[in-house]
Every structure is written in C-alpha cells, then in structure tokens.
Amino acid sequence: MRLALHWQILIALVLAVGAGLATGTEGTVLGVRAYAVYEFFGTLFLNGLKMIIVPLVVSSIVIGMAGIGGGHGIGRLGAKTLVFYVASSFLAIVTGLALVNLVAPGVVDPELARSLLASAGAAADQDLSRLGERDLSDLTGVFISMVPPNIVAAAADGQLLGLIFFSLLYGYFLTRLDDAQAQVQYNFWQGVLNIMMRVTMLIMKFAPLGVFCLVAKVVAGLELRQMAEFALTLGKFVFTVVAALAFHALVTLPLVLRLLGRVSPVRHFRAMAPALLTAFSTASSSATLPLTLECVEKNAGVSNRTASFVLPLGATVNMDGTALYECVVAMFIAQLYGLELGLVTQFTIVLIALLTSIGVAGIPSASLVAITIILAAVGLPLEAIGVILAVDRVLDMLRTAVNVFSDSVGAVMVARMEGEQDILAAEPEPETS
Predict the structure, then answer these.
(1) Cα 362 to the chain's mean position, in Å?
(2) Assuming Cys at both sites, which of 7, 196, 367, 387 could form a disulfide with 322, CB separation 3.0 to 4.6 Å?
(3) C-beta separation of 89 from 252 below 8 A
(4) Residue 216, pLDDT above cutoff 90
(5) What is the pTM for the complete model shown?
C-alpha cells in the first residue's frame, strides 16, 4: 500500500533532520560530500517550481475569468459571487498581514537569520534596503508595472504582476468572442491548464525528496544551539499562520454568516464537516469539490443552480487560506532579512496575494508557486522559500480546509442574496453518502 504524499513528506522531514545533523556541511557518503547532494537535488526541486510559474498562472487565470464571464455570464449571480470572493480573500490577507506584523516571527538574532538563509541557498547579505524604503511616491510604479509594454519580456524578467493583469483581461475578453472562436480559445487554455496541473503533480511527487534535501541542507548548516532557535522561529511562524487562519475561519466568516446572511454559523460548520475533513486530509480543494457540492446542497439547503455555479468557480479562484499564507510567508522572509517593509511594499504584497490566489490551482502545494511569484515581485530571493518547507505540508492541509469553508460560505451568502429560503433552517443529516 502506497503512503499518502503528506505521510511521505512528514517521514522525509524526520529523516532530513537526522541526516543534516549526521553529515553537517563536510560529511561524505560514498566519497561524495552530502551537503553538495542536498544542494543539487534541492535546487532541482525549486527550479521545477519556478519552471511552471508562467504557464500555470496564465492558464489558471484565463480559465478562471472565462468561467466567470461565460456560462451564466458575469451578470447578477456572477457579480455577487466575484464580489464575495474578492472581499473574503482581502479580509483573509489583511488578517494575515496584521498577525505577522504583530507576532513578527521572522525578527530573530541576525546571526541565526544569516545561517537560515544561507542554508536555504539564499544570499544572506543581499542589499535589499531599497525594498524596505519604498514610500507612497512609489505607489504609481506598482500600477505602471501592471501594464507592461512587452508581455513576453515581463514574463521572462519576472514582472508577474503585469502578466497576471494581462491574463485577467485575456480571460474576460475571451468570452466576448463569437461562440466558435471562444470555444477554440477556451479548449486551448483548458488543455494548457490540464497539462500544467499534471506537470505540477509530477513535480510534487518529488516533493519528499525535495523537502528532504532542502531541510537537510538547512539543518546541516546550523549548530545545535541554532537548531533550537530555528525550531522556535518556525514555531512562531506556524503559530502566526494557524492563528490567522483560525481567526478568519472561526471569527470573520461566521460573523459574515450571522450578520449578513442571517444564518447559524454552528449549523453551517456541522453541515460542512465531511467536506472540511476531506479537504484537510487531501489538501486539495478540487478533489473535495464533489463532496463540497453535496454538503452545501443536501446539508445546507442551497439550490443546485447556485451551488453548481459558485462552488466550482470558488475551487478555482477563491483561495482565502492560500492568499493569507502567501502574505505571511513573504513578510516572514522579509523579517529574516531584517527589513521593515513600508506601506507601499506591504500594499504590493496584499495586491499580488489577492491576484495570485485567483491563479492557484486547487492541487496540493500549488501555493508554493504563488509564493515564488510574490517573492519575485517584491524583490526577495526565491531560494529563501526553503526555510519554510519543513512545515509547509501541514499548513497546506489547514489552509485548504479554510479555502473550502470560504467557498461554502460564499455559496450560502449568494443564495441568501438571491432570495433563497430555508437555508440552514434545520440540522444537517447525521451522515453524508
């Protein structure tokens, strides 16, 4: 029986700590320096993630926007759905931003920060001072970068904010073509998306090896005293993410249900329990979608007309937990570099997290791709992502559950705005087939 991916990664983490401690930076295996092996395979894994950024994000956003603009059309139902998804993702990102500034998990001893970043493969002495000094006068540059003069050059140079904006426009106007042309375009981009999702899944099959090498590399470069400090730093990072996710899922969204939807949040949690448990265990909102539809329709009482439009769209474009996590990771890495990011840079992170959450496919660990986009966009080294890979899988499970719960709340809210009655009026059935 083959172990699930998350168990493979957890086992790899345990083995990586032992291997890193055993070999250090100078230990050899069969005459080969172990640290060089960790670096080689860890770099391959990171390069694989970087390789799929452009085609995955472009195809995801084009198909997502085409889905909003096509079918039922971007009319009343589509507009209400889109407004809710944008608003809920924005609230999630702001929650993450507030918590990471309050807890400051990346504010550590400079020597430890340098060791962590160097072990992860990122230069600890890079001159990033300009990044933290941006002020409101630089805000115009953020919006100018959204409209690049050469979209191909923008993609090649890592100016992905412009690429995302272009993809949003492309997807929207795709639906304004006549049926024959639109179908050809849609089929092409859907094919690209399907291929890129398979490529992503292929790369993630090597995640246990990639995580093993990246974590072993970090551990090998640390002294025992720094190991304890590293564990404490990661613990603060995990606490920040979990606290932010919990606040969004247990406070923000229930308040939306109670105050705006006039329904019971407790009943909704009970109705969605099977889907939330499945989302947590699979770390895939797409794989959970059939069960999410069943729970929302049968247990929560939302009509098939609303659920069948809102939920599939949400599984593609509504990623509250993922957007929140992206923001926290970017801020955490900036703190490791000793940067105090200004208002403009933090606004840029919020904006890109909001936009990239639309383009993240609902598959395990695809948010790692989005994180690399944010780091590249704000000028932080992509290799620094290696610092958080040790805990990414568990947090992926949590944020996927939040993503699915937000989708279900969106379905309930849109149904209420559409005038549907008897939603969550009774306790859900004890079991869902």
Answers:
(1) 9
(2) 367
(3) no
(4) no
(5) 0.72
> What pLDDT is recorded for position 119?
59
> What's the number of CA atoms in the CB half-sphere (13 Å) around residue 158?
16
| Structure confidence by residue, pLDDT tens digits, 284-295 | 776 687 788 888
Model pLDDT, residue 88: 93
DSSP three-state, residue 263? coil
Q: What is the pLDDT of residue 73?
A: 47
Q: How buried is residue 430: exposed, middle or buried, by Cβ count under 10 Å (0-12/13-18/19+)?
A: exposed
Average pLDDT over residues 40-50: 81
Helix residue ranges, H only, 52-122:
53-69, 76-103, 110-120
Which has the closest alpha carbon to 57: 146, 166, 153? Answer: 166
Say if residues 311 and 293 touch (Cβ distance below 8 Å): yes
- Residues 90/320, Cβ–Cβ less than 8 Å: no
Instruction: Identify which of 318, 274, 282 has the alpha carbon closest to the alpha carbon of residue 299.
Output: 274
Q: Which domains does the chain have, with CATH numbers?
A: 5-417 (1.10.3860)
pLDDT in the model for residue 72? 46
Question: Worst-scoring range by mean pLDDT, 186-200, 263-277, 375-389?
Answer: 375-389
Percent over 90 (pLDDT), the chain: 15
Banded model confidence at residue 402, pLDDT cuts 50, 70, 90:
very high
65, with CB counted inside 10 A (0-12, 13-18, 19+), is buried
Q: Which amino acid is at 13?
A: L
Instruction: Give the whole-angstrom CA distance, residue 293 versus residue 304.
Output: 8
Residue 3, burial from CB neighbour count under 10 angstroms (0-12, 13-18, 19+): exposed
Asked whether 216 and 19 are in contact (CB, 8 A), the reply is yes
Question: Tell me, what's the pLDDT at 141?
Answer: 61
Q: Which residues of 91-128 are buried (b: 16+ CB within 10 A; e: fewer)?
A: bbbbbbbebbeebebbebeeebbbbbbbbbbbebeeeb
Cα 11–chain centre separation: 23
Q: Where are the alpha helices (DSSP H) in 133-263?
A: 139-144, 151-156, 160-174, 179-205, 207-220, 224-247, 253-255
Q: In angstroms, rounded to a whole number, what is the distance separating the alpha carbons of residues 179 and 160?
A: 30
CA–CA dist 6, 348 (Å, integer) = 32
**b/e per residue 45-60 (b: at least 16 CB within 10 A):** bbebbeebbbebbbbb
